[in-house]
Amino acid sequence: MTPTPTSSLFALSNRTILVTGGVRGLGLSIAVSLLESGADVVVFDLISPDHPDSVSDWTAAQATAAAHHAKLSWISLDVTDADAVASAVDAAFSSARPTHPVKGLFNSAGIQFLKPATEIAPSMWRKVVDINLTGSFLMSAAFARSFTGQGGSVVLVASMSGRVANKGLDCAAYNASKAGVVQLARNLAMEWGDKIRVNTLSPGYIRTALTDALLQQEPEYEKTWLDGSLLGRLSTVDEFRGPAIFLLSDASSFMTGADLVVDGGHTAV
């Protein structure tokens, strides 16, 4: 093998990366980092970039794309709709610049809700599993069908909650779905061998607008969360940029079927 210069290991130039759930939050933070690393990015989300809560961040992301001579686009998509997923992914592959073929997928679309297991309506259970787990499967399978080269990388966002029960939080549906995402990735990695690497990224608690709103309603949660963190704080969305770039780039070329846990040490003890 010809060694890749260390300075180029994390570069994502001359490729396109697909990102689900990328109009805001973690997905948008990763999309911006991909643009900064030289990739074109296609974002899939039901939320429009024109949404009042998203428009300013999306405008900033477009400015980042322009500054790095990259391309940022958005496709409206329900990740639980198999036909729509197949069409959207095919369109993304077809519209990619010849100099930037699609080589990666970062799947961060997901939902969470808190409810005791005895009170979860079957419809709500199915919705969580459909978006978090089935959506991950449909996007990954569509990517694999369209990808014809070598060296592809799929990153599915799981969670530390796929490994442990969250003390004080009633979220059985979410945790079960994320455990399923981890196992799904292992199986896809086995099936696709050296053609497409498949790994999961498992974040810990992330401070976002949604978690801030929850903590305002249930302030005792913050103490519980912080007690479980070896770093003594929650993460920010920016702290997952490095791990995501690592998994999508050649820096992780010998890594597949693995779960990268980035949780501030929550699951270490």
UniProtKB/TrEMBL annotation:
<dbReference type="GO" id="GO:0016616">
    <property type="term" value="F:oxidoreductase activity, acting on the CH-OH group of donors, NAD or NADP as acceptor"/>
</dbReference>
<comment type="similarity">
    <text>Belongs to the short-chain dehydrogenases/reductases (SDR) family.</text>
</comment>
<dbReference type="GO" id="GO:0050664">
    <property type="term" value="F:oxidoreductase activity, acting on NAD(P)H, oxygen as acceptor"/>
</dbReference>
<dbReference type="InterPro" id="IPR057326">
    <property type="entry name" value="KR_dom"/>
</dbReference>
<dbReference type="InterPro" id="IPR036291">
    <property type="entry name" value="NAD(P)-bd_dom_sf"/>
</dbReference>
<dbReference type="InterPro" id="IPR002347">
    <property type="entry name" value="SDR_fam"/>
</dbReference>
<dbReference type="Pfam" id="PF13561">
    <property type="entry name" value="adh_short_C2"/>
</dbReference>
<keyword id="KW-0521">NADP</keyword>
<dbReference type="InterPro" id="IPR020904">
    <property type="entry name" value="Sc_DH/Rdtase_CS"/>
</dbReference>
<feature type="domain" description="Ketoreductase">
    <location>
        <begin position="15"/>
        <end position="195"/>
    </location>
</feature>
<keyword id="KW-0560">Oxidoreductase</keyword>
<protein>
    <recommendedName>
        <fullName>Ketoreductase domain-containing protein</fullName>
    </recommendedName>
</protein>
